[in-house]
TrEMBL record:
Keyword tags: Cytoplasm, DNA damage, DNA repair, DNA replication, DNA-binding, DNA-directed DNA polymerase, Magnesium, Metal-binding, Mutator protein, Nucleotidyltransferase, Transferase
Sequence similarity: Belongs to the DNA polymerase type-Y family.
Catalytic activity, EC: 2.7.7.7
GO biological process terms held by the UniProt record: DNA repair; DNA replication; error-prone translesion synthesis; SOS response
Record's GO cellular component terms: cytosol
One function term, GO molecular function aspect: DNA-directed DNA polymerase activity
Organism: Escherichia coli
Residues annotated as domain UmuC: 1-129
Top EC class for this record: transferase
Listed name of the protein: DNA polymerase IV
Transmembrane regions listed in the UniProt entry: none
Lineage of origin: Bacteria, Pseudomonadati, Pseudomonadota, Gammaproteobacteria, Enterobacterales
Length: 129
């Protein structure tokens, strides 16, 4: 299960028991999951990723680490690659995406959470102690 951003403002989180979510947000609308559609979208997004790099480490249906260190796209700029991937996801699937760009995975994950939804945040190597 997941929670959209308006529900999150009430404290509802992914994987939260339904009863707890309804206590936090009594007017919550519950929708049935559409796992086949999610899996199809996830596969399409991974195919988009593969246009830029073969170094893809999937974490879940909606998260992955991409190593674009050796990519020739966008003049090798990870920031521009992330922008282009996000735009391509929107153009092809009408879905928004957030991205974090950083020299290490741990910081990329933190960066990806900094500008949600539909944003991007960059931590440069110079900003890493």
């Amino acid at each position: 299960s997941t929670a959209n951003y308006p529900a999150r403002k009430f404290g509802v989180r992914s994987a939260m028991p339904t009863g707890m979510a309804l206590k936090l947000c009594p007017h919550l609308t519950l929708l049935p999951g559409r796992f086949d559609a999610y899996k199809e979208a996830s596969n399409h997004i991974r195919e988009i990723f593969s246009r830029y790099t073969s170094r893809i480490e999937p974490l879940s249906l909606d998260e992955a680490y991409l190593d674009v260190t050796d990519s020739v796209y966008c003049h090798g700029s990870a920031t521009l690659i992330a922008q282009e991937i996000r735009q391509t996801i929107f153009n092809e699937l009408q879905l928004t995406a957030s991205a974090g760009v950083a020299p290490v995975k741990f910081l990329a994950k933190i960066a990806s959470d900094m500008n949600k939804p539909n944003g991007q945040f960059v931590i440069t190597p110079a900003e890493v102690p």
